Amino acid sequence: MAQEAQIVTRIAPSPTGYMHIGTARTALFNWLYARGRGGKFVLRIEDTDRARSTPEATQAILDGMAWLGLDHDGEAVSQFARADRHRQVAEEMLATGHAYKCFSTQDEIAAFRDAARAEGRSTLFLSPWRERDDHPDAPYVIRLKAPRDGQTIIADQVQGDVTIQNATLDDMILLRSDGTPTYMHAVVVDDHDMGVTHVIRGDDHLNNAARQIQIYRAMGWPEPVWAHIPLIHGEDGKKLSKRHGATGVMEYAEMGIPAAAMRNYLARLGWSHGDDELFTDAQALEWFDLSGIGKSPARLDMKKLGNVAGWHIANAEDADLVAQIGQFLDITGQPSLSQVQQDGLTRAMYCLKDRARSLPELLDKGRFVLDNRPLDYDEKAVSTLDPVSRGILRELTAQLQNASWTRDTLEGVLNAAAVSHGLKFGKLAGPLRAALSGRTVSPSVFDMMLVIGREETLARLTEAASLGD
Ligand code: GLU
Q1: Cys-Cys link to 108, which of 62, 104, 222, 227 (CB 3.0-4.6 A)?
Q2: What span, in angstroms and rounded, lies between the C-alpha atoms of 420 and 461?
Q3: Is 239 one of the catalytic residues?
Q4: How far apart are CA 360 and CA 370, in angstroms?
Q5: Mutate to test the pocket of ligand 1, among 26, 28, 46, 208 (most ligand atoms within 8 A of CB)
Q6: Who contacts 7 (Cβ-Cβ below 8 Å, separation ≥6)?
């Protein structure tokens, strides 16, 4: 049986100080594509801009990837560290006649452009050195000998066939006069050397592909499959900016969006599988394909993200949610939970997770199990604890001493208490809720009683009953 070549995708971010959600989405698409097909997903840090490429900026990318759970194969590759190899390939292209040394100075290039402009010609620089073989002893750059006629077709999996007239492509610089490679050259050499078979990236790089293809051809290297995906826009359809919502992926971690929900949400930003909005990683891995990527920009929708987060929280394992809360507290620099608090939260999780749309919402709903006595009653809770209510709580304390601690029995006891005071159960639930949680909004009183147990319930009722004594 013929063995299909292994798929290799990559993410090649430039360190900018943080990981943009557009980069995160591109990384996710590449990860899904490779991992769903038994392929490899590699990471290259495009750190040739030395001013921006600080260790912190690189770390920010690694942090974003780690939080999103996008594991890559092998070590992260530094583009800067590969400069010798980039030079070597440029020299090889020189030797095979696919590139040439250009000695034109900045002033000469500027003069060429001025003249072209004055004559109404294209300002695309045509180097006189392309056809010369005399080599003065002067600084030079190495330029690609790009085809002048015909056209280059990018067979793009998202955009379709994109045709570029070769006359619009200049002889781009591969190596600067100081011997450093240009971005355009380094990307191709690195992608080839890293065995990248599919280049899936933002469509702001579409035009670059036409130029990059020339290097593949000059070197006789197999061209990768191209897929240029539309950028993410804001809700108003304009280019994404801060005013549309968070643009850094870690800002979502700080909001307490579960990483699985972020993956689900980002996958749907530009890709679709029928009407499926909510799905697991396993489903995304099975379904993801380049044919499902749309041609128009996806719009960031924070409300939808909240719904996706809610679904993932409701369907997650309790212990996993507690672990994620631990990570959230860590990321946001908050004190971590004690083992007792973690155990309590795990027991309570079944009654917290149904309608929460973020991890901090879970924490907030879970305060009743996290807080110790004496509870810090909020003002509204205190107002429900009037003398009559406190009297009822005192009576209940006695009745609950010997009740068996099951939902049915507790319902029976509390309903009977309400009836005996001529109250609807709702009237009784207010002060009970206040006593058990210190608040007027909380999980149901039965859930709270079952979670904290008899002893703690009685202690809280006693404490609330004596309020104001
Ligand atoms: N380093 C480029 C960027 O951050 C990506 C290059 C590529 O994907 O080819 O936009």
Answers
A1: 104
A2: 19
A3: no
A4: 13
A5: 46
A6: 33, 34, 37, 38, 39, 40, 197, 198
50 falls in which pLDDT band (50, 70, 90)? confident
Question: How far does residue 215's CA lie from ligand 1's centre (Å)?
Answer: 17
The full 3-state SS of the chain, as one line of letters, equals CCCCCCCEEEECCCCCCCCEHHHHHHHHHHHHHHHCCCCEEEEEECCCCCCCCCHHHHHHHHHHHHHHCCCCCCCCEECHHHHHHHHHHHHHHHHCCCEEEECCCHHHHHHHHHHHHHCCCCCCCCCHHHCCCCCCCCCCEEEECCCCCCEEEEEECCCEEEEEEHHHCCCCEEECCCCCECHHHHHHHHHHHCCCCEEEEEHHHHHHHHHHHHHHHHHCCCCCEEEEECCEECCCCCECCHHHCCCEHHHHHHHCCCHHHHHHHHHHCCECCCCCCCCCHHHHHHHCCHHHECCCCEECCHHHHHHHHHHHHHHCCHHHHHHHHHHHHHHCCCCCCCHHHHHHHHHHHHHCCCCCCCHHHHHHHCHHHHCCCCCCCCHHHHHHCCHHHHHHHHHHHHHHCCCCCCHHHHHHHHHHHHHHCCCCHHHHHHHHHHHHHCCCCCCCHHHHHHHHHHHHHHHHHHHHHCCCC
Percent of the chain beyond pLDDT 70?
99
Q: 16 in ligand 1 pocket by Cβ < 6 Å?
A: no
Question: Which segment of 32-36, 46-50, 75-79, 258-262 scores lowest on mean pLDDT?
Answer: 46-50
CB 187 less than 6 A from any atom of ligand 1: yes
Q: Which residues pair with 91 in a beta bridge?
A: none
Average pLDDT over residues 210-226: 97
What are φ and ψ of residue 16, in 5° steps?
-115, 0
pLDDT band at 2 (very low <50, low <70, confident <90, very high): very low
Q: Which of 335, 337, 305, 26 is nearest to 158 (CA)?
A: 26
- Residues facing residue 10 across a β-bridge: 42
Asked whether 13 lines ligand 1 (CB < 6 A), one says yes
Instruction: Please state, in angstroms and rounded to a whole number, the distance separating the CA atoms of residues 387 and 393.
Output: 10
Atom of ligand 1 nearest to the CA of 191: 9
Residues sharing a CB contact under 8 Å with residue 419, sequence separation 6 or more, in sequence order:
none
User: What are the pLDDT digits (tens) for 121-178?
Assistant: 999 999 999 999 899 999 999 999 999 999 999 999 999 999 999 999 999 999 999 9
